[in-house]
Amino acid sequence: MTDATLYLDAAATEPVSRNVIDAMLPFMTDAYANPASVHQDGKTAARALDAARRSFAGDLGAHADDVIFTSGGTESDNLAIKGIALAAMRRLPQGVRPRIVVSAVEHPAVAESARWMARFFDADVITVPVDGRGRIRLDALEGALVAGDGAGSRPVLVSVMLANNEVGAIQPVEDVVRIAHRHHVPVHVDAVQAAGQVPIHMRDWDVDALSVSGHKFGTPKGLGALLVRGRVPIEPLLSGGGQERGLRSGTQNVAGAVGLAIALDESITFMREHHAELVASRDRLIRGVLEAIPQARLTGDPEHRLPGHASFIFPGVTGEALLVDLDARGIECSSGSACAIGRHEIPSTLLAMGLEPAVAKSALRLTFRRPLADADIARIIDALRASCESLGLH
Ligand code: PLP
């Protein structure tokens, strides 16, 4: 990336801040001991791990006991879906299948975990539709929970993301919890895109389990956590030494936990100070794009959306061609999900929102964690206009 490059792919990943590196470094050099060791250096590492756990939990409105450190969002989602469903199966009457209820816009880490449960454990997976703005239909959620044992299954888990990666829509998680709990069903929330960007109050919202991934808010990649309340029965997916309440065996990454706590804290402080500015710059960008390119349409919810997330469709061109053209102009962005390992797939959220595949293919996502300067907004709009023109959109 050159100085002239504008990086607008924060939903894919973020750089690691200097403070985070500085805070992590001692736990890879001097204070490198295993936190399970009983000697003094081990105790030092264990204290750092505890402090990181407390700070991290506090920033998510959770308790230190809730935190299970993992290798990131994918692992956290897998542990939540499979672990909670497997534990619930042990309590179901013979012959009754576990029902897993997920929204139609979940990340593959959730959707595929549910599908895996269907494939190997005959789980009944119900996908709840979203409206045209990408928000879950609460009436349909209720329906998915009430369908009785006549369906041969009983609901054991609801999983709904807090913020969508493709269109930035923020889900009404508190309503989801209220409805699910009325049916005595626990709720897992994938907060990977939301953490550090919007306030999260896990306990106040009465959420049962919550996934977070560090590299979305400034840690090295491969770090995250599942927060899960003690009241929720859950089976571990890894067998071993019993670390992390027995739910995630393996020597803990102390430096990683320290980095997670510092990075989340930094992001939250930054958001507290700059949220309004970030939203204002996002809205200037959205207005500018819609004015400059008449064919452009905003996707997602104009009101309930991440502060640094602008997503559009440009019917008549493909998002892939736009991406490549913009890249050549020094603008790095994405078409939707970053997790399709270089494959250009049609953003599934847009299909779930009812867009035709040909239209959904024209999606573009611009995501950022810092307010955009007016000069940058002007540059993005000029580049987009030029790219659209060069691709034949007039
Ligand atoms: N969940 C959501 C909503 C995501 O956007 C992502 C990654 O983009 C993940 C889960 C997976 O997280 P990780 O990259 O840490 O495995």
Helix-strand blueprint:
Elements: E1 6-7, H1 18-24, H2 40-59, E2 67-70, H3 73-89, E3 97-103, H4 108-121, E4 124-128, H5 138-146, E5 153-161, H6 173-182, E6 187-190, E7 209-213, E8 224-228, H7 254-292, E9 297-298, E10 309-313, H8 319-328, E11 331-332, H9 348-352, H10 357-360, E12 363-367, H11 374-390
Parallel strand pairs: 1-11, 3-4, 3-5, 5-6, 6-7
Antiparallel strand pairs: 2-8, 7-8, 9-10, 10-12
Helix pairs in contact: 1-7, 2-7, 3-4, 5-6, 7-11
The protein binds pyridoxal-5'-phosphate (PLP).
The site of pyridoxal-5'-phosphate has 15 residues, from helix 3.
Q: Please indicate the percent range of residues in DSSP E strands (runs of 2 or more).
A: 5-15%
| Structural class based on helices, strands and sheet pairing | alpha/beta
CATH fold assignment of the largest domain: Aspartate Aminotransferase, domain 2
Helix and strand sequence? EHHEHEHEHEHEEEHEEHEHHEH
Q: For the record, what CATH class of the largest domain applies?
A: Alpha Beta
The best one-word shape is: globular
**Which stretches are poorly predicted, pLDDT < 50 over at least 5 residues?**
none
User: How many E strands?
Assistant: 12
What's the helix count?
Answer: 11
* Attached small molecules: pyridoxal-5'-phosphate
Q: What is the CA–CA distance across the termini? A: 30 Å
Q: What number of domains?
A: 2
Q: What value does the average pLDDT take?
A: 95
CATH architecture of the largest domain: 3-Layer(aba) Sandwich
Largest sheet: 7 strands, mixed
Provide the helix percentage.
Answer: 25-40%
